[in-house]
TrEMBL record:
Gene3D superfamilies: 3.90.1200.10. SUPFAM superfamilies: Protein kinase-like (PK-like) (SSF56112). It comes from the Bacteria. The keyword Transferase applies. It comes from Saccharopolyspora terrae. Residues 46-248 form the Aminoglycoside phosphotransferase domain. The keyword Protein biosynthesis does not apply. GO terms for molecular function: transferase activity. This is Aminoglycoside phosphotransferase family protein. InterPro entries: Aminoglycoside_PTrfase, Kinase-like_dom_sf. Keywords: Transferase.
Amino acid sequence: MTTASFSADTTRAVTEAACAEAGIPSDDARLMRLGENALFHIPSCSVVVRIARTMDYWADVVREVAVSKWLHQAGISAAQVVDSVGQPLAVDGHPVTFWRFISGEPAPYSRIGDLGSLLRRLHGLEPPAELQLPNEDILDRVQPRVEKAPIAESDRRFLLRRLDELSDEVAALEYVLPASAVHGDAHIGNIMIAEDGAPVLIDFERFAYGQPEWDLGMTATEFRTAGWWSDAQYQTFVDAYGFDVTQWSGFRTVQAVHQLKMTTWIMQNVQESQDIADEYDARMRTIRDGLASTWSPR
């Protein structure tokens, strides 16, 4: 199964095959999200099935399972794997994992302070040597996405040139925060609010050892570029963490990198709907021409 066939229908077939192998019923599986991964909820057994796009992500998925266990040992509220299933499983060319369903709701924007607090705690942890976190490569997924995406060749050439430019800028950055374990995809969508009101950190596939500025730069880019946060909300995030990355001299590069990543992420599903195609066009206008454009949260 190829990246091009990563759709609601094909990932449902993978879910059914994976559940059959794991001994988990899948009759009531429903698609929760289709993006970098596909997520299916199985209400009857309170399980979430997570499907990565290709086997290229196998090492990331193995690490994700290990990180979940480490975070619980360290006392951080985080998503948990289903212990009764040996995982990940390799099914039809996809790494598949099984997670305990978090009964609650996605964090509303009013809880942005929880993201800042959780990142502060995470960045202060010393990861165990056996976890073997890789060094963060902030741009590693951009080129494969661009090369495979169903986009105009003019867009493809532009995005690859922009990638080269930003790679040089990233190499020249001088950071101000100490290196640490980093989440790698630190946005409000990766916080759930459990029924008891506690924030729960999710999605550990991009965990690495690197610079906290990149984790903080995600929300800062959503604030400065996409306009998803009010001044007061962004200040709540800054106060919870204790550092404002937008005041650092390297933020311009961090912002440009996150703009590129956010655009190439949505680009993967540009053929799924007209809404996604329109959103991709809006983001391209921003990074190609520097034109102000409202970005829709996805």
